[in-house]
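worker-03 picked up job from queue 'complexes'. Input manifest follows; two sequence lines, order preserved.
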Amino acid sequence: MVSIEGVKFQYDAAGPVLSFPDFSCAQGDRMLLLGNSGTGKTTLLHLLCGLLTPTSGALTVGSKSLHTSTDRELDRWRGAEVGVIFQQAHFVQSLTVRENLALPHQLTTGRIPADLESKMDDMLDRLGIGHRAGAQPHELSVGEQQRASIARALLHKPKVVFADEPTSALDDESAAAVMDILDREAAYATLVVVTHDQRLKDRYASCVTLSHQRP
Amino acid sequence: MNLGVTTQAWRNLQAKPLQTALSLALLAFGVGMVSLMLLTEKQVNDAFERNIKDIDLVLGAKGSPLQLILANVYHIDAPTGNISLEAAQKVVKHPYIASGIPLAYGDNHEGYRIVGTDMGYVEHYGAELADGTWWDKTFDVTLGAKVAEATGLALGDTFFSAHGLTDQTDIHTNRTFTVVGVMAPSGTVVDQLILTSIQSIWDVHAHEGEEVDPSTREITAMLLKKRNALAVLTIPNTLRDTNMQVALPAIEVNRMTQQFGLGTAALRAIAMLIMALSFASIFISVLDNIRARRHELALMRTMGGTPRTLYTLLLAEGGLLSAGGTLLGLILSRVAMVVLSAFVEQQFHYSLSAMMPLPGEVALAAAAVAVGLVSSAIPARRTLRLDISETLSEA
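worker-03 finished. Artifact:
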């Protein structure tokens, strides 16, 4: 589950204080965090991933209370329990797609399980990019990169999946396809989609609209 | 699938081939130069040490003392002239002198010197026979191991000598030398000499039927062992009014290596400068990697990588660069040694063959890798302060 209560954040002492509405999302549910530019969507996503620490308030993701955890605990937790799909698909460019997908396991546990490669191939096949497993990330099209990014976020079966603007650069058909893939592959997990894409506003029953933060 | 730190570091270096090649080449060149200097210094010093071997003084004609030593101890220069055998024998009988080994030469066969001497010379260098016997009769010769190998001469073969030390134009066809023995390799100057009796040298230069007055017989030099340390001070005074001089091998070699030392110090400074540049290159390479790959590094943090993981990865890249550059440098110095050895062998018949790592090289390699690691550790510390949120928001 994901729960935030009274969360405020300030980048620096002189900067504005960002306030976020309270909400919660049960384990296995889907939720949309909808907001236009300047509403603090990315800041909220980074707070939910434990990349930023709230100035005040309580923030719980899964079993982890992020506001009371150490950086080291958060590093391990992210690797084990969280999957993040970024708006722009980042990859380690010197590694192949297959190696990029295995990297979270290596970083979290220091090894790659023997059965990971077959799981990986299955997932890439389901996403329609099985034939690109040995390619370098820069050789993929934008759509292929997006799907590879989804595969990487989900391969280690995270309890919570955060997706940042997964459809913003896609046409209607592609956007629907990506969301279908996300819903299907992350069916077991809690899924939180952060977006300004109004096409998604009715997709889930649970939707929190973020209001403008800046004066 | 192996995605250990070393594999990731290697793949990252491969992704920037030009930058990696530049860092490797600079370090390899710097380490290679220092290593080559260490190897040649060691080889040259060993060769000098092996061949000086208890020769305290060299008695010969007046001229350059260094030339006297190079010609008569190492056989890599022309002699300063001839001296009277009778006068030389008087010096050997001086109470401060323990013994003397006469040397007479002036001819060669295929560039290898034919040296007239006595068995004292063989015993001095501990040379042993591999085949046949020691020379006995006039025009009998016993070959050094390298001479036998290079010329293909074997027991019973005969040859003419040529006048001079390298020239092959003026050949003494009136006298024939016969190979009666071949020496085993000794690692000393004897390996590259053709030994015979002094009488052979005199006879090959005598005219047909000429009677030589024994009092006018000459030799090239006399290698002396002292009985008393005062010989070093006393003997030069006794030679003041003669055409002879004594030179001290240890002092002359030391003087020569000091002169070389100025050159080698300059070369070493250049090599150190190149190494410093290579470390700067590693520093810049790692720093540039952090800038160019900051999104990748931030991404790795979101996937469970800790600041220490990223720091170790960048340190491994610097470590691989410095270890690879050092290894290449050591290989480079050995390749250069092979080339240099071929030149020295051709010019002076000396072999520079030792390729085993020297203690100095081990220290050099350890220092190069350590400085390379430090050069990458300093910029890599930036990863410890990487703001993941800010970096990911830049994209």
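worker-03 released lock.
Chain A has a mean pLDDT of 88.
The helical segments of chain A are 41-48, 71-81, 97-109, 116-126, 142-154, 172-185.
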